[in-house]
Amino acid sequence: MDFRLGERSDAFRVKAKQFLSGHLTDEVREQMRSTGVHHNWDFHRARAAHGLLAPGWPEEFGGEGRDALEVLASAEEFQSAGAPTYGVGTTLMVANVIRHLGTEDQKRLILPQALSGDIIIVLGFTEPEAGSDVAAAQTRAVRDGDEWVINGQKMFTTNAQEADYVFLLTRTNPEVAKHKGLTTFLVPLRQAGVEIQPVITVSGERTNLTFYSDVRVDDSLRIGEIDGGWHVMTVGLTFERSIPQGGDSVRLIHAMEQWALASVDDVGRPRSEDPDVLARLGRAAAECEVTILLARRCAWLHHSGILPGVEGSMAKLFASESLTRQSADFVDMLGPDGIRSEGDATAIAEGIAEYSYRYALGTTTYGGTSEIQRNIIAQRGLGLPRPS
Ligand SMILES: Cc1cc2nc3c(=O)[nH]c(=O)nc-3n(C[C@H](O)[C@H](O)[C@H](O)COP(=O)(O)OP(=O)(O)OC[C@H]3O[C@@H](n4cnc5c(N)ncnc54)[C@H](O)[C@@H]3O)c2cc1C
Questions:
Q1: Best label site of 6, 235, 336, 359, fewest CB within 10 Å?
Q2: Atom of ligand 1 nearest to the CA of 375
C-alpha cells in the first residue's frame, strides 16, 4: 500500500503552488472577504490560461488529460490556500454532465467557453420547500413550441450574480411520481424574467434567492430527456465525489500552530509548551489527516476506474463535522480573544478561528447535509433499509 500520490502528482502540485504564489494576491483575498463571493474572474481566467482549471479533461476539449491523482494534488493546493474555487467546481460538474449527456450542439456551444474560463455555470436545485428532498422541486417548465416557459423560485443559487447559466431542475410533469416528472435546463441568467436577490449567510458568504417569471428557454438548452431530470442529476452527482477535503482545517491548524509558537501565557510560558494547547492541536491534526485520506481514497477509486459512492459521503461528512469540532475547540482554546473577528486589530491570526466557527456551519449543509450523508452511509454502505 502506497499513500503517496506519485511523482507526476508531486510535480503538478508544485505547478499549482507556483501559480498560487503569483496569483492568489492580497487583493483577491480581500475581495473574497469583503464581498463573501468565492469567485474572482481574473484569478479564474488566469487559472485556465495556466492549464489548471480543467487539467483532467482530455486534450480535445482543452484539458491536459491528467489523471485523477494529479488533479487531486493540484486541487488540494487550491483548497488549502483558500483560493476562490466555487465557480470552477459547479462549472466543471455541469460541463461533465454535458459531455456525457448533452447534444453535439450543446458541447460545441458550452464546453469551450466553460473550460477556457470565459463563463461559469451555477446550480439551481434547492427551493424553499425542496432541499434534501431535491426531487420535490416545484419550479415549473411548460413547453411552448420550440421553447419552454419557466416559473418558480430557487434558494441558495450561489454565484448566480456572476454566472452566465444556471443548471436548473424543473418540474415538467406534475401528474407522475416526483422523480419521474423532472427536467433539467441550462438557463441563461442574463435575461428578462430572472431576478437575483442576495442572501448573506452567518459567515458572510454570499448566496442568492433566484426568481423565474415567464422565463423563456429554447429546447436546445434542455439537458437530457424530457422528464429524465432525475437521471441527469444522478450523473451530475457522480462527478462531485473526487473533490479534495480538509483545506479549511489545514489553514486553521497552521494558524493555531503559529500562534502557539509565537505567544506566551499569563505567566510567560510559551503556549507551545501548554499541554492543553498541544492536546487540542494534536487532536485536530489527526482528524485533518483522516479527512485528507478519506478524500484521497475517492480520487484513488476514480483513478482505478471505480465510481466512488458512500466513500464520497464519508469524506464530506467527516470533513465538515471535524472542521466544526476544531473551530469550536480553537475558539475555546483562545478564550475571549477567540471571538474577535478579522478587522479587529486585537484578533488572533486575523480572526480565523471565529470565522471558521461560523463558516463550518454552512459546510455541514451544502452538498447534502450531515444527516443525509449519514443516511446514505447507513443505507448504501451498511445495507440498512430505507424508512417506508
Ligand atoms: C452556503 C450554502 C450554499 C448553497 N449553495 C447551493 C447552490 O449553489 N445550489 C443549490 O441548489 N443549493 C445550494 N445550497 C442548498 C443546500 O444544498 C441545501 O441547503 C441542503 O440540501 C439542505 O436543504 P434545506 O436547506 O432545504 O434543508 P431541509 O432539507 O429542509 O433540511 C432541514 C433539516 O432536516 C434534516 N433532514 C431533511 N431530510 C432528512 C432525512 N431524510 N433524514 C434525516 N434528516 C433530514 C436536514 O439534515 C436538516 O438538518 C446551499 C446551501 C448553503 C447553506
A1: 336
A2: 42
Ligand 1 atom index nearest CA of 367: 17
Q: In terms of C-beta distances under 8 Å and separation of at least 24 residues, what long-range contacts does 126-129 make, across chains too?
A: 126/154, 126/155, 126/156, 126/157, 127/152, 127/153, 127/154, 127/155, 128/153, 128/155
Per-residue pLDDT tens for 365-377? 999 999 999 999 9
DSSP, residue by residue, 8-68? HHHHHHHHHHHHHHHHS-HHHHHHHHHH-----HHHHHHHHHTT-SSTTS-GGGT-----H
* 67 Cβ below 6 A of ligand 1: no
* Domain range 122-227, CATH class: mainly beta
The span from the CA of 293 to the CA of 246, in Å, is: 9
365 CB near ligand 1 (under 6 Å): yes
CA–CA dist 143, 148 (Å, integer): 4
Q: Which CATH number fits domain 247-381: 1.20.140.10, 3.40.30.10, 3.30.70.20, 1.10.15.40?
A: 1.20.140.10
For helices 352-363 and 310-334, the axis angle rounded to 10 degrees is: 150
Reading the block at residue 53, the C-alpha cell is: 482549471
CATH class for the domain made up of 7-84 = mainly alpha
Short-list 157, 156, 150, CA closest to 187: 150
Cell of 51: 492549464
Give the pLDDT band (50/70/90) at residue 239.
Answer: confident
Name residues whose C-beta falls within 8 Å of residue 61's C-beta, 6 or more positions apart in sequence: 54, 99, 111, 112, 115
Question: Domains of the chain: which residue ranges?
Answer: 7-84, 122-227, 247-381
Residues taking part in catalysis: 240
Confidence tier at 180 by pLDDT (50, 70, 90):
very high
Half-sphere exposure (Cβ direction) of 314: Cα atoms closer than 13 Å: 19
